Amino acid sequence: MRLGLLGGTFDPIHFGHLLLAERCREECGLDRVWFLPAGQPPHKAAEGISPGQERAEMVEFAIAGHPQFEVNRMELARAGRSFTVDTLREIHAEDPARELFFLIGADSLADLPSWRDPAGIVELATIVAVNRGDRPLPDLDALRRTLGNKVADRIRLVTMPGIDLSSTDIRRRVREGRSIRFMTPRPCEVYIHEHGLYRDSAASIE
Predict the structure, then answer these.
(1) Rounded to an integer, what distance in angstroms lies between the CA atom of residue 99 and that of residue 127?
(2) Percent of the chain at pLDDT exceeding 70
């Protein structure tokens, strides 16, 4: 099975995440895509992130009805900080026959050398780097110089339409009492409203 893995805090998930996953599924011929809500990501303060249960439930609402998409909560169940290489090792150990594809935004490639065990990551999975809109393509030659040809040769580039959405902006708009309609799936929008997420005081979301 060709399995795509899309990690993130998803706080909240938005249409940019969903389009990225669908474009990779189609372009890479993936049989399934797992959304992996992060537990305690190493680059973010835990106190600034919504509870994992709520983030995972929003992802479930967002992907409902898509037969190839599902949520995997393994990182939420892991104690301490969550590193990509540990997740890939665990998934590979469960079924070594699966071919793994790790889906990320192309702008994150520049940070790959600073991740824990980048060589181990590319040994376990093909990295699918998604370039959005007309942004410059990532500099693979720079990665080759830093990590070697073996790493760069395991990177596949996919292009998707540019969508200027971010979870940070959605949270800010909720705090300000502004609309997030058509930025995140409607069930997620309702969930945010009903659970009072991202706001200091109650305000309706139209």
Answers:
(1) 11
(2) 93
Instruction: Supply the pTM of this predicted model.
Output: 0.91
CA–CA separation, 112 and 118 (whole Å): 6
Name the one residue in this structure whose structure tokens are 């040809």: 149
Cα–Cα–Cα angle for 58, 61, 64, nearest 5°?
145
CB under 8 Å to 24, separation ≥6 — which residues?
4, 6, 30, 33, 101, 103, 128, 130, 158
- Among 89, 143, 84, 139, which Cα is nearest to 113's? 143
For 56-76, how does the pLDDT look when each residue is reduced to its tens digit (9 = 90+)?
A: 999 999 999 999 999 999 999
Structure confidence at residue 206 (pLDDT): 39
Q: State whether the Cα torsion 36-73-76-197 is positive or negative.
A: positive
pLDDT tens-digit map of 174-183: 999 999 999 9
Section 78-104 average pLDDT = 94
Kindly state the helix (H) or strand (E) to which residue 159 belongs, with its residue range.
Answer: strand 155-160
DSSP 8-state assignment for residue 56: H
Residue (of 180, 175, 144) closest to 165 by Cα position: 180
129: Cα separation from own chain's centroid: 12
**33-58, pLDDT tens digit by residue?**
999 999 876 655 555 789 999 999 99
- As a whole number of angstroms, the distance between CA 149 and CA 169 comes to 37
The structure tokens 């181990």 sit at 120
